[in-house]
Amino acid sequence: MGRQKRKQMKPRRLSKRKTEADRADQHDLYQKSVQAPEADIEFFTKVFEAQRGRAPLRMREDFCGTAYFSTEWCKSDPKRTAVGVDLSAETLQWGREHNLAEAPDDVRARVELIEGDVRSAHDVAPAELTCAMNFSFCVFKTRAELLEYFRAARAGLVEDGVFFCELYGGMEAIQEVEDHREVEGFTYIWQQARYNPIDHSTLCHIHFEFEDGSEIRKAFTYDWRLWTIPELRELMLEAGFREVRVYWEEVEDEEDSDPNTDELTGTGEYVEVTEVENQESWLVYIAAFV
Ligand SMILES: C[S@@+](CC[C@H](N)C(=O)[O-])C[C@H]1O[C@@H](n2cnc3c(N)ncnc32)[C@H](O)[C@@H]1O
Fold first, then answer.
1. Is any ligand 1 atom within 6 A of the Cβ of residue 173?
2. Confidence band for 251, pLDDT divided at 50, 70 and 90
3. Closest C-alpha to ligand 1, atom 12
4. pTM of the entire structure?
């Protein structure tokens, strides 16, 4: 008797129940995890008003992605307008269909989105304030590229305009670490996967984990150069800005900080500094004044 032919296995029906990861929207998770436009807007307005004696109205958001910041900017004052620039048509479209679609008509009418390179000249009215959030300029890995970007940012500003960006650093920034943080029903994970001391390139990923055990690995990946504050200052001055200031987060007094960790607790208030104590990790705002 010949060998009995094995029954063809019926393809297993995949469970119809979608996991939390299946149902999640990566742009929505990103916005909830790493963007806080209201706090940024309050800080930028405070610095601009102190230096220029008026509130800024016209804002340009470079690397705007989903234009979350631009939308919130226009919501913050009916006289405010925004232009957002980003290379990704897909991300801009998500922003139109979500952030802008959900905004009141008058807000939507004051946000203009441009699909293009932040280093190119765009045919838009100059901004009083330009911002580049979440370290996006670190995509430029050479001095020449970053200088070209800062020149373009400078050229897109009015004659007393201000450029704001953020930078992170510290001893921990060059270590291969994973940082987990609980956000509204999911875990946000920032992974520093690689750092090369020869050229300061760093490869970082954002992952998300959910309560049902599902996850989205490498939802976003960044191949960056980790710049230093003095390098940015020098390039900004070379690009034609007159003055550069660094704003560092104040920390709670030691008795108010968590006694179970060595970590200092930030107050959320940023102050201008020229000298600070070294820290494991830090995040600063840098302002360049035309
Ligand atoms: C880290 S995300 C920033 C998203 C958001 N604006 C934020 O503050 O979190 C970087 C964005 O920069 C865009 N980008 C990268 N290189 C660019 C370039 N040369 N010109 C314009 N946009 C660029 C990407 O498409 C992406 O949307």
1. no
2. confident
3. 63
4. 0.92
d(CA 11, CA 30): 36
**What is the CB neighbour count within 10 angstroms for residue 72?**
20
CATH 3.40.50.150 residue window(s) in the chain: 23-169+228-289
Alpha carbon nearest to ligand 1 atom 25, residue: 88
Domain 23-169+228-289 has CATH 3.30.70.1350: no
Distance of CA 206 from the midpoint of ligand 1 (Å): 15
Measured between alpha carbons, how far is 113 from 111 in angstroms, rounded to an integer? Answer: 7
Question: How does DSSP assign 55-89, residue by residue?
Answer: ---EEEEET-TT-HHHHHHHHT-TT-EEEEEES-H
Ligand 1 atom closest to the CA of 118, numbered from 1: 20
Residue to mutate (ligand 1; options 26, 28, 87; most atoms within 8 A of CB): 87
Best-predicted range by mean pLDDT (136-140, 255-259, 263-267): 136-140
- Average pLDDT of span 169-194: 97
